[in-house]
From TrEMBL:
The protein's name: Fibronectin type-III domain-containing protein
Originating species: Ruminococcus albus
Residues that span the membrane, as ranges: none
Family annotation (PROSITE patterns): FN3 (PS50853)
SMART domains membership: FN3
Residue ranges of every copy of the Fibronectin type-III domain listed in the record: 510-597
SUPFAM superfamilies listed in its UniProt record: Fibronectin type III (SSF49265)
Amino acid sequence: MRVHNTGKRFAAGVLAITLVGGAVPANIGVFDLSGSTVVVASAEESEQNISKATITMKAHSPKVLSVELDGTILQKNIDYTVSYTQKDTDGNTIEFSEPPKAAGNYQAVITGIGDYQGVVYRAFDIVGSGYEGISIIDGGQGTHTPSNEHLWLIFDKNKNTKWCSRVISAGEYANRDSDWLLFEADTPFAIHNYVLTTANDTSRYTGRNWKSWRIYGSNSAAAAEYSPTYTDHKVTDIDEDIWSLVHQVTDDTVLEPVNFTEFPYAVPHNKCKYKYYLLILDDIVDSYDNIAQMSEIEFNADLPVTVTHVDAVPVGCLNEGNIECWYDEYNDKYYLDEEATKEITEEEVIIPTIGRHTYGEPEWNWDEKTQTVTATFTCEACGEKHTVDAEIQRSSIAATCTTPAYTSYTAVVEFEGETYRSKPKIYKGAGALGHSYGRPEWKYDEKNHTVTATFKCERCTDVQTIDATITSKTTSPTYIKDGKIVYTAAVKFNGQTYTTNKTVILDKLTYTPPTITYLKGEGAVKLQWTDIKGAEKYGVAGFINGKWRMIDEGEGTSYILKDLQAGKEYKVCVATKLNGEWFTDPSNAITVTPKPKAVKDNPAVTYAKGNNAVKLSWDTVDGAEKYAVAGYVNGRWQILAEGIGTSYVLRDLKAGFQYKVAVSAMFNGNWNTDFSNAITVTPNAAATSPYPKFETQVKDNRIGFKWEAVPDAEQYAIAVYRAGRWVPMKQFDSSVHTWTTPQVKSGTYTAVVIAKINGEWVTAHASSNAVTIKVF
Ligand SMILES: [Zn+2]
Ligand SMILES: [Zn+2]
């Protein structure tokens, strides 16, 4: 980059330097910018040439506050760097990178880097001060202040030079804006005192003395950029976020209209250390000619010890106290003695406070008339009293069984973040309700010997258990009705008698029929049975024709059954009448029979012959119930007939045949089977005209014959009755015993089978042997 250090290119339009702080500093002679040089880099080298940037700096500070190009704020060390130059007494340029601190004239060299190029030079000076480590940054003063009486001279440690600020407008004195001075300390410090030294001719121009001023301090970097705003020529709008007031004097009474005289001001108890300070002169003693003057200001001057007595202050709850001491307000130092030989620290002087009162429970003040309550709090430490209106809280509690109703009033206050409650005032209401027991719960023991009654309160949990007296009444059971025991329990409780009943059922008596025995008699039996307790009557019943029928009744436990047949069994039972009702349980039935009769011999039998029959006869046998006629048939005795008579005709006997018969008598229902009385009988001998026995069958108009052989038969024949005699029609050998006719006409036929014996057809008695046959 080529730098043109030539005045040819210096044109007013290129100069783009803004002085912060308004126009005021521009006419401070020493800082006249007419000597400044602005060098602009070649325009064609880059469109991003920094030469057109707007540079913001304070006139008397090396700090480049901002570099702005086409609305963009450029970044230090990214877009540009800052270095410094100064010409020495020989005119040589000295370069250095750190911001200068020594008083003198300098140039800030702003060099584009990165996306930027070009260089801008900005002139500034460092005013410095007569004090080590303090630099003046900026200030404002009257527009017509001569260069040899400028603002900085108040800070040069030389009382022969002075700041004499004036404003002259159109030949007349005008209202002046407040003067101000901004300076920076390398090391932050707290101001304990400052000393103002009046000027060389203050006694002559008494109105130039200061009247009202302010000193602010700050540790904010923004403090360096301070620029004033004015309202009616007075500095206003001090930003309290940046600035803190350190000291202020209004209508000063200390300064005197004298020349070259020091007036110290104390800033007692100040501990705040600041890097930046701003002095604002608000007013002067007489503004008629609008000239302010002061030759020196010195901060924290080495002033002689001057003590003032400090009374001991007892520590309070809210305020700290201190011991008795002597205070040097100009040097912010404490001493135990007036001679200031025994210095002590502030901590030793101060008796710290807890910063609050210590209140305990308040005193409650109930005003029954107005129904209001106040709470008076008394500080336990200092006795300070504080009375607060309380709120009254009411609560009602209903009566219970054992406690009365009551209403309680409690006063409540909120005080210093705490809630306080008074003891409740309790007003008794309706009395206790008393327990309310309902019916008791009864409890019997297993044997129903004891009973308890438990009463439970319906409202609360109270329980009362009381032993009851118990009585009982028994109704015995019968065979037809249950019995019962009724237990009655009774208790007296709270003057009232409660009773309850419990019934225990006794089961009906169980009927067990009597056990029956009997004795046999002749045609009779004697029944006997066990006695049934409570029996009113007994009944004897017989099982007759499939049904039980009551035979007789009576009160005894025996009975004779008469008219019984020996050998016969009778089923009987005994019923019992109990409680007016018959109980019949035939499970006790027994079968009885009378004594059996003596069995006699069967009777002797005689007989008389008849034709094909015999008549049997016998005598009666004592005790016989019946008689039977038995025949010996096929090797066995068979009863042929029975009855009660003493004779019997046996018919259909064959002549010439013998039959073995006997008569049996019945005793006790049993036949006497002793057939030793058997006899052999035979009917009369018959004429010899035997006829074959035969039978016939009709089928398909044919008649079949079948016959039995007869002894001595030589031939057989079918005979029909013709012309008054039986004629053999069809004859057969004796070996033939069947024959079937050819078909015959429907009609009635009479026929008989005859035999030829000894050469003659036997036809006598044929009619009685013939049969009639119908053919349909
Ligand atoms: Zn207190
Ligand atoms: Zn209760």
